[in-house]
Inverse folding.
């Protein structure tokens, strides 16, 4: 990953940590610093950006294959809840190599049946800091992951600030991975 990637086309990216959308230009050199959860954190001209997984080709990489939902046919609400949490574990803060579930950023996830084997997901999540501009980007990532699960037809993601996030909300695995234990 230390090799620079030359952008093969113009590509939309979000400035980290402010979240502003920009267009990175074809021919610019990008250093991939993280490729987790289907998105890429890159450094271009000394600035950090997040590129969506569906734009991997701009980096000369193949887009990661979408994970299929387990089995075919109807799933129980319990099975779907398991799939939802696994899907949420594929969402990463672009600056921290730990998924948002283990970081303790997901406060609540509730599934409501809205038809025969169709559900609405309501998620309450927070950020490590209230001023983080990546909030809308992360919330959209969560919504996209949920909608990609076949039984989920609707997903609402609410950013909340109470209680305020702190390091004690992280799992032991996350603390260990970040050298906090």
């Amino acid at each position: 990953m230390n090799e620079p990637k030359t952008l093969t086309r113009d590509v939309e990216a979000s400035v980290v940590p402010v979240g502003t959308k920009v267009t990175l230009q074809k021919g610019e050199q990008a250093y991939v610093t993280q490729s987790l959860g289907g998105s890429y954190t890159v450094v271009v001209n000394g600035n950090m950006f997040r590129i969506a997984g569906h734009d991997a080709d701009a980096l000369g990489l193949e887009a990661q294959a979408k994970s299929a939902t387990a089995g075919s046919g109807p799933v129980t609400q319990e099975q779907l809840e398991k799939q939802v949490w696994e899907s949420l574990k594929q969402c990463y803060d672009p600056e921290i190599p730990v998924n948002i579930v283990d970081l303790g950023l997901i406060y609540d996830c509730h599934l409501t049946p809205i038809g025969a084997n169709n559900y609405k997901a309501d998620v309450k999540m927070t950020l490590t800091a209230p001023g983080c501009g990546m909030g809308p980007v992360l919330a959209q990532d969560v919504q996209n992951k949920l909608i990609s699960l076949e039984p989920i037809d609707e997903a609402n993601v609410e950013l909340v600030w109470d209680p305020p996030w702190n390091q004690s909300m992280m799992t032991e695995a996350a603390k260990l991975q970040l050298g906090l234990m």
In short: Strands lie at 5-6, 11-15, 21-24, 29-36, 39-44, 47-51, 106-115, 118-125, 152-159.
